[in-house]
Amino acid sequence: MRYAVLGTGEVGRTLGGRLAELGHEVTLGSRSKDNPTALEWARGAGAGAQAGTFAEAASSAEVVVVAVGGRVALMALEAAGAENLDGKVVVDVSNPMAFEDGELRLSPVESDSVGEQIQRAFPRARVVKTLNTVNCKVMVDPSLVPGEHQIFVCGADASAKEQVSGLLGEFGWPPHRVLDLGGIRSARSVEMLLPLWLDLLRNLGHAEFNIEVRRGH
Amino acid sequence: MRYAVLGTGEVGRTLGGRLAELGHEVTLGSRSKDNPTALEWARGAGAGAQAGTFAEAASSAEVVVVAVGGRVALMALEAAGAENLDGKVVVDVSNPMAFEDGELRLSPVESDSVGEQIQRAFPRARVVKTLNTVNCKVMVDPSLVPGEHQIFVCGADASAKEQVSGLLGEFGWPPHRVLDLGGIRSARSVEMLLPLWLDLLRNLGHAEFNIEVRRGH
Prior knowledge:
The structure is a homodimer. The first copy, chain A, is of the alpha/beta class. Chain A has a single domain (2-204), classed as 3-Layer(aba) Sandwich (Rossmann fold). Chain A is built from 9 helices and 11 strands. Chain A has helices at 10-21, 36-44, 54-60, 73-80, 114-121, 136-140, 158-171, 187-191, 194-204, and strands spanning 2-6, 25-30, 49-53, 63-66, 89-92, 97-100, 103-106, 126-130, 151-154, 178-182, 209-215. In chain A, helix 1 links the parallel strand 1 (2-6) and strand 2 (25-30). The longest helix of chain A is centred in the last third of the chain and has 14 residues, at 158-171. Chain A is globular, with a radius of gyration of 16 Å. Chain A binds chain B through residues 103, 105-106, 109-111, 138, 144-147, 149, 179-182, 186, 188-190, 192-193, 195-196, 198-200, 202-204, 206, 208-217, and chain B through 103, 105-106, 109-111, 138, 144-147, 149, 179-182, 186, 188-190, 192-193, 195-196, 198-200, 202-204, 206, 208-217. Strand 11 (209-215) of chain A pairs antiparallel with strand 11 (209-215) of chain B, so a sheet runs across the interface.
């Protein structure tokens, strides 16, 4: 498959690197054509790896992964171009977090989410929210954490969620550990996990953890 | 111990009932002295069980449990009286949720929490947020859900958290399954779990579930 990974931070490079290792063609997208981080990533990530602008990455891709910060996700996708998202699966792994005066803040929160913002702004994209609830190393290697812990998917389009579940399977998440929460509105629920995730990070002292939903029946 | 359980809904009656079964003295507190639900509960809950006003319940108690809805928690505690909370452990199990136009809304959220509101309003109370992340049947019988799933505690006062951990132990939560998230500010994190909890309730079709934090090391 041909993937665009928008964002050259640790999340984008980790996801893009693993996709390239799996044999996919990956373009790491950024604002400018000559982003040094993206170029260095492409040199090290093998034959299928390229760097480009958001629009170059998205135009050639079958699947677009949003790996920028949640607060700039719409900006990155507008730069990618609505015509380059038309009908495509858009995988949103972002969290709309920022530190303001030393305090963690989420925006949007509770009455909206980045997943919903993207779906509203690009109604012909097939948006799936997933992976935002774990560290990027765990995203691409869930065996770092023991147990039958799960990953959530949310989105309106069942076939897009099925395709994303296949991708999650390539990363090491078997189907029974992919929990479909429902429509894209549930992006609110998974984005609102971030404060707990940060509390656990502080308390455990590392990011190699996840939650497992246990059920009585 | 002498407990006040404020609130005559399912959460209050379940917590109060289990506390009475465990041999504690429990007064179920409500707005009025002659609340029929509270009186009926007291008749069925054994020798140590009584019904009373919020103030009557709190004045005689060593520990006060806030089991009303999160949006009316401050009102119930004001009715209980600040002088009846002085120096006492106040266990807040509430969630500030309401359905507005058919939509779930949380308020406060993200920049504040009920736990913090209570601690600010009653600075001499020793507030511990806990148990709000599971259904009330699971609160008092965690064995309904298999696995080493956990319960969170948040609060400024370490000795109050230790006392609450003892209470949680009586309910069936052993110490290694009580996760101390830190100060009362972390009440934000656990209150923000509610939307995910409701999504899981809808998807699983029942409330006998909980999350287990799994860690790589």
